[in-house]
User: Fold this.
Amino acid sequence: MEDKPIDKQVILKELEELHKLDYEYADGRILGSMCTEAHPFAKEVYCKFLDTNLGDPGLFKGTKQIENEVIKSIGRFLSLDNAYGNIVTGGTEANLMAIRAARNHARKYKGITDGEIIIPESAHFSFKKAADMLNLKIVEAQLDENFKIDAESVRNSITEKTVAIVAIAGTTELGLIDPIEEISKIALEHNIYFHVDAAFGGFSIPFLKEIGYDLPVFDFSLEGVCSITVDPHKMGLAPIPAGGIIFRCEEYLEVMAVDSPYLTVKTQSTIVGTRLGASSAATYAIMKYFGKEGYSKIANDLMENTKFLARGLKELGYEIVCEPELNIVAFNHPEMQTNDLAEKLEGLGWKISVAKCPVAIRVVLMNHVKRNHLEELLKDLKDIF
Ligand SMILES: Cc1ncc(COP(=O)(O)O)c(C=O)c1O
Assistant:
């Protein structure tokens, strides 16, 4: 830090220069991100709530009410009338809270002190962080030939130490929905906590179903589901950071509560202490602004782009890893190594992401990727050969 104050204009200029190094969503070149530009209305609301702190909710009663309302509202589109939970920083923190709840619950009611969690091989790496922080062992369930969690493998992985089973509604690499109904039954049968990671799919699956898409059930209508991660800062179009953790019952928050002596509340269950109310307010606003109808339209538009890309790729001789269930297309070319293809695309200015399981170029059709960008991409993919 400098000794003397610096003029605001000088500071702003310096920051703008650095900001220019960032890629912009509006260019349509970012193809691998699960985030996108937030809606302007959500950003406007966000700025009005920048000073609110939900870590001390007695001081911000109105904003706390907003968070509660958002959680209830997300819960309702996930088939739960009375949801509990929090708006947190993202899918990672939401998953961490779910696994912490599961671990503490199993410790309290089953006396398990050295627990294990069963996650699919396709799980987001946030579960590795959670297991590391919570001192749990990860047991990976295998995937079936369709890259979805194999129910038999889950069943065979259960031991007396299992504290949670995880399945995914919208996998990070392929956007696939695991057979959650089947896993829910297994979890119920064995009385094991079941968490669904719908960080990506949560803001699209329910709305696609509303307009007739035939997608599997993944939500609280399944008795075994204890919690769901769903991220407003992905397809919800809320500004970063906004993740959501929704619990079926309050008990899962209670088992995480620690005393918070100097605050306006006696206990705190979240991982983060001081935390933004702006994320809750922006999510509240954007959910009201779009309603089910608006989100259905967004989700449908994304799926139309997904189908357009998949069709175009096939016409050019590319191979699709699987038929997309949500707005992700993963592909390869039979005559070129994936990494070589990725390198060529990077050279042409595309920001590419490569999936690991299986290895493939992975395009996430987020809102900033428009039809004209896809046409340019397909042209480049044609010209590469
Ligand atoms: C399925 C899934 N879960 C969790 C996460 C982590 O979310 P975040 O990056 O918001 O922490 C992601 C991120 O893409 C994801 O795809």
The chain has a mean pLDDT of 98. The radius of gyration is 22 Å. The pocket of pyridoxal-5'-phosphate is lined by residues 34, 90-92, 95, 124, 126, 168, 170, 172, 197, 199-200, 231, 243 (CB under 6 Å).
